[in-house]
Amino acid sequence: MIEILAPGLAIGLGAIGPGIGIGLLVMGALQAMGRNPEVSGEIRTNMILGIVFAESIAIYALVVALLLLFVGAPGLQ
Amino acid sequence: MRKLFQGKNLILIIGVLAALVISVLFVKVPLPTILLPAEKIPGLKIGGFQFTNTLIATLLADITVLVLGLLAVRKMSDVPDGLQNLAEWIFEAFDGMLTDIGGKEKARAWLPTFLTILLFLLFANWWELVPGFDSVGVIEPVEVAYANSGVTRGYGISEFAGITTLTKDQVILDKERLGEIEAEAAAAEAADKEYHPEETTGGYVLTPFLRAAATDLNLTIGLAFFVVLLSHAIGVRKMGLKYFRRFAMPVITGMKPIDFFVGILEFISEFAKIISLAFRLFGNIFAGQVLLFVMSFLVAFLLPLPFMGLELFVGFMQAFVFAILTFIYFEQATHSHAGDEHH
């Protein structure tokens, strides 16, 4: 049972923070674009970079989940 | 809106819906065996070197970039058209973008590295969406797959017009059989022979010839390692041995204990760079692959389509992010820390 639950919890809990972070990031970027449409290209590049950094935390959680799912934790079985 | 449901469109919509219903009811796709390490292709061994399916996909992506590049420069003209036009547009667009980030000189110097990584990863990721990837390969008994990579679930096979396909009937190896297989495989290895089961349970596993290149950690970690190493080389070339001061005793605040810890953090962050670059690419592409598998497993028709579009976007995005982070790491390596210039 715990073998199935562990990867689910790993990615499920790990995705909360990056989800909130990406939401805040895009909100800020869109507000900035609305106020300064002439620099929206620059803002978009930086926004994507920020999203990527926030997303990479979710990816760490995903990697842990995948490892638990396919390789298994030592001592679990 | 009313026009949408008339004549040809109506026939098209009904046809799509009918195909959807038929595919939900009758077309059953087995869930592919999801494995973390790349699968070895049985029989493809040159001089003791075992080819894996991700390696072949990597070579395929290499060849695609090379062929497109050579085709683009074959007939050069002052007024470009076709492929040359596209290549020039790509160069100009990214040259402009890199100039915005790092200035003209740096953009010119590192644009080739940037575009090589971008285009290679782009094609490596997009090849995954071509039909036949992950689905055409060698069918082996599940016993062999268990001995090689620990797969315990096989599927039945059916033959149609000379082509063998997997069906949805599952065969799961039980504990007793697993022990037997392990003993037999160990015996075969001791005798230096390839393992072939004497009797099979009727379960089979597909080993695809091709699998998305970035779903192999060897590629992503190798590429990330190369990029970070190159950024150090660039830093040393720019600043000489002074470059290594950032890891030992940077002068930022002027207070020695703080600067010492900043140096340690800098040192650790070099390893974090490799890990985050490698796992970001790997995680995204691997997750996309599993997503496509599961969607085609649920409904084989129409449902995977939007996810294919998503993967098209993710594939470009990850290639772009890897390349732009490469550029940013290079740029950081040529900056000395603020203190060095002002004191």
Protein architecture, described:
The complex is a heterodimer of chains A (77) and B (343). Chain A is 84% helix and 0% strand. Chain A has 77 residues and is mainly α. Chain A has a single domain, classed as F1FO ATP Synthase (Up-down Bundle), CATH 1.20.20.10. In chain A, helix 2 packs antiparallel against helix 3 (40-71). With 343 residues, chain B is α+β, with helices and mostly antiparallel strands. In chain B, strand 1 (40-46) and strand 2 form a beta hairpin. The radius of gyration of chain B is 26 Å and the shape is globular. Residues 339-343 of chain B have low confidence and may be disordered. The interface between A and B is medium-sized, with 15 and 19 residues.
User: How helix-rich are the residues of chain B, as a percent range?
Assistant: 55-70%
| Shape designation of chain A | elongated
Fraction of helical residues of chain A: over 70%
Q: Outline the biggest β-sheet of chain B.
A: 2 strands, antiparallel
Sequence-ordered SSE layout with sheet pairings:
The complex is a heterodimer of chains A (77) and B (343).
Chain A: H1 2-14, H2 16-35, H3 40-71
Chain B: H1 7-25, E1 40-46, E2 49-52, H2 53-72, H3 82-102, H4 104-126, E3 131-134, E4 137-141, H5 142-149, E5 153-160, E6 163-172, H6 175-190, E7 204-208, H7 217-239, H8 245-248, H9 256-298, H10 304-334, H11 338-342
Antiparallel strand pairs in B: 1-2, 4-7, 5-6
